[in-house]
Specification:
single chain; alpha+beta; five-stranded antiparallel sheet; 16 strands; 59% helix; 7% strand; disordered N terminus; disordered C terminus; UbiB_kinase
Length: 705
């Protein structure tokens, strides 16, 4: 049987982001430590925007399912926004005014935190002195989980962030802290039901025909109930915010921020502005408290990514949503890390993980708007085989320039072009333009020359992340927060896949998407990256093109038409003369290979007796070329033939796609290009014919003796 799982208000990427800052502040050598994290808004909230109706699994508009058209839905969203008008916003100044005049409350909370964490730290110190640190890891990990849970939501979220950081925490701690994702204490149901009535302004029995008497799940910021709407009979998930949570986290952030000031003033080895990092973290947590914002995030995500039949995003019911209550479609499914339960439904974990990888790549590199919290509790396998995304409290955006730069970075890695890789860090906003990248190149070369002994697709993603992180650690990089979240997203998916297949490689699963983008995207940066990949030292690498087509065809959105047109337009553009020269040279080679290959095939098909009579016993036949040259020419012809076959066998191949290409070829530049190719092949064939005519009989005789 499938288990029910619900959208939880876990949202740990904000904690993870803080964990990233903590990790970058743990210095092994203060003299070498130069990495600084930018406290910029990487985790963002989407602006209110109208979203077109999307389709549910039955082909009906999600808005129609909710009982209204688009206009009614937008009006309902506006009413929800009005209900959330007084949602709290993080303000350190207001917190300072509020708690600066309450010293007793501040002191009491300080003692609670000090006693909780201090007692845990003291026991760790005793373990170290007694040589039992490793032996007691499991016990201490469980103890830390209990301490953080007892200290409340702020520390639960910090623990959730630590649970995603294998570079900080040992495996025993990771396992225990991961339970903070969805195994938290609940608050009284009466308080939850009272909150619903207060927020929505309606009695409970007028909203729902039934609601679960106790929560289905609880998380750091709220808990979830299963209910049935009275007006439509639709089964929904109702997330209700914990009472008093704003005051609780406000006091904690006031204290933590005070600690940040002390660290900035007295701890010299930490170069980051700790107060700025804490403020950024706090702003993200406060944004997560606004459930209308989460609903808008979900709608935007659904609009962008739920167009794929294997991706499911629950819809939002605005009339029953406010700043502290979120009502969305109920999703029946199994968590992605529950492999046995998934397989009992006849599904394959690797298929679902691959769906997640392809969707994540679209999020990170196509639209730039991505789910920043893809832990197993937020990724469900539905009985129909769809991958459902849940919990949209924390979202992030990849800057537009960085999306192309990341793909280009992969190309430069494949080419082992370490100077270009180093320059990519400007576009990725890792380095300011005035930083000299030349000292970074040897470090990249030392790592990647060793890591790339195998092909890129066989490279373990974690190995790549760890190695690149070691390089970043040594040089003055400003690491944007979005980058850490990208790595986190793909690392989580690879980790899930490794449960099912220890040999799984996320880069191998990602390569079809990269190949498709390189072949079809008209972006100038990616066009240049494709040329870099395919040309080397004036020669075209047909094996690279064949591999790109083989991989790109694995992506369901690959289009042969899209793959041909951008390259032709680039080739015939005003700035394409250098490329045209290379293409003409290669076109001559290919044409020659096709013509002479046909001659060789014809010669080989003639019976030996006839061959001896026609060519007077000449063993070299009609062509004067070595066996190596002949083999190379036949290989080139066959490879080009395979590539054309790949284009023709593409699912959406239609001869009509050649029509716009022919129109492009009718342009003046194209006609001149054809003339240059014909002229080149004519010269090559004439030269070979002259060689045949002038060859010395003695040389032939010697070669046949």
């Amino acid at each position: 049987m499938s288990s029910f799982a619900m959208p939880l208000a876990v949202g740990y990427p904000s904690s993870m982001w803080l964990g990233e800052a903590v990790a970058n502040s743990r210095l092994k050598d203060p003299c070498k430590r130069k990495v600084r994290l930018i406290p910029q808004a990487a985790l963002v909230q989407s602006r209110p925007r109208p979203v077109p109706a999307t389709r549910d699994g039955g082909g009906n508009s999600a808005l129609q399912v909710m009982g209204g058209d688009r206009t009614n839905d937008m009006q309902a969203e506006a009413r929800a926004l009005a209900r959330a008008a007084n949602a709290s916003v993080y303000s350190p100044e207001l917190l300072a005014i509020k708690y600066g005049s309450r010293p007793i409350k501040v002191l009491r909370r300080t003692l609670e935190i000090f006693i909780g964490l201090g007692s845990f730290g003291f026991r760790l110190l005793l373990d170290q002195r007694n040589g039992q640190l490793d032996q007691n890891k499991r016990v201490r990990a469980a103890e830390l989980r209990r301490v953080l849970t007892k200290l409340g939501p702020t520390f639960v979220k910090i623990g959730q962030g630590l649970s995603t950081r294998p570079d900080i925490c040992p495996p025993e701690y990771l396992e225990e802290l991961s339970e903070l994702q969805d195994a938290l204490p609940t608050f009284p149901d009466a308080e939850a039901f009272s909150c619903i009535e207060r927020e929505l302004g309606l009695p409970l029995d007028s909203i729902y025909s039934s609601i679960s008497p106790s929560p289905i799940a609880a998380a750091s910021l709220g808990q979830v109930y299963k209910a049935q709407l009275k007006y439509s009979g639709q089964v929904v998930a109702v997330k209700v915010q914990r009472p008093g949570i704003e005051a609780a986290i406000g006091l904690d952030f006031y204290l933590i921020r005070g600690l940040g000031f002390l660290i900035n003033k007295y701890v010299d080895i930490i170069t980051s502005d700790v107060v700025a990092l804490i403020d950024e973290f706090a702003r993200r947590v406060y944004q997560e408290l606004n459930y209308v914002q989460e609903g808008q995030n979900a709608r935007r995500f659904k609009k962008l990514y739920a167009d794929k039949e294997d991706v499911l995003v629950p819809d939002i019911f605005w009339d029953y949503t406010s700043g502290k209550v979120l009502t969305m479609e109920w999703v029946n499914g199994v968590k992605l890390n529950e492999q046995d339960a998934i397989e009992r439904q006849g599904l394959k974990v690797l298929d679902l993980v691959n769906t997640g990888i392809q969707c994540s790549l679209r999020q990170l590199l196509e639209y730039g708007y991505f789910h920043a919290d893809p832990h197993p509790g937020n990724l469900l396998a539905t009985p129909e085989g769809k991958l459902a995304f849940l919990d949209f409290g924390m979202m992030s955006e990849t800057p537009e320039e960085a999306r192309s730069a990341i793909i280009g970075h992969v190309v430069h890695m494949v080419n082992r072009d370490y100077e270009a890789m180093a320059r990519d860090y400007y576009a990725l906003d890792f380095l300011s333009p005035d930083v000299d990248v030349s000292p970074i190149v040897p470090a990249l070369q030392n790592f990647f020359d060793d890591a790339l002994n195998s092909t890129v697709s066989e490279l373990n993603f974690k190995t790549l992340v760890d190695g690149l992180g070691a390089v970043l650690y040594q040089y003055p990089f400003n690491v944007p927060a979005y980058y850490a979240l990208i790595l986190r997203s793909l690392t989580v998916l690879e980790g899930l896949a490794l449960y099912a297949d220890p040999n799984f490689k996320v880069l191998a699963a990602s390569y079809p998407y990269f190949a498709k983008r390189l072949l079809t995207d008209p972006n100038p940066y990616l066009r240049d990256a494709l040329i870099e990949l395919l040309f080397k030292d004036g020669r075209f690498r047909w094996n690279r093109l064949e591999n790109l087509l083989v991989q790109g065809r694995k992506d369901r959105d690959f289009s042969a038409k899209d793959a041909l047109q951008p390259v032709l337009k680039l080739l015939l553009g005003p700035d394409g003369e250098e490329l045209r020269t290379l293409v003409i040279k290669e076109a001559v080679r290919v044409t020659e290979a096709v013509i002479l290959g046909s001659v060789v095939d014809t010669y080989n098909s003639i019976p030996d007796l006839m061959r001896a009579l026609i060519f007077n016993g000449n063993a070299t036949g009609p062509l004067l070329m070595s066996d190596t040259e002949q083999e190379s020419m036949l290989q080139l012809r066959d490879q080009v033939s395979r590539i054309w076959g790949l284009l023709r066998s593409s699912d959406n191949f239609d001869p009509a796609l050649l029509q716009p290409i022919l129109q492009v070829l009718q342009e003046p530049e194209a006609r001149g290009l054809g003339g240059r190719v014909i002229g080149g092949i004519t010269q090559r064939l004439a030269a070979r014919l002259l060689q045949q005519v002038l060859r010395a009989p003695t040389t032939v005789s010697a070669s046949t003796s």
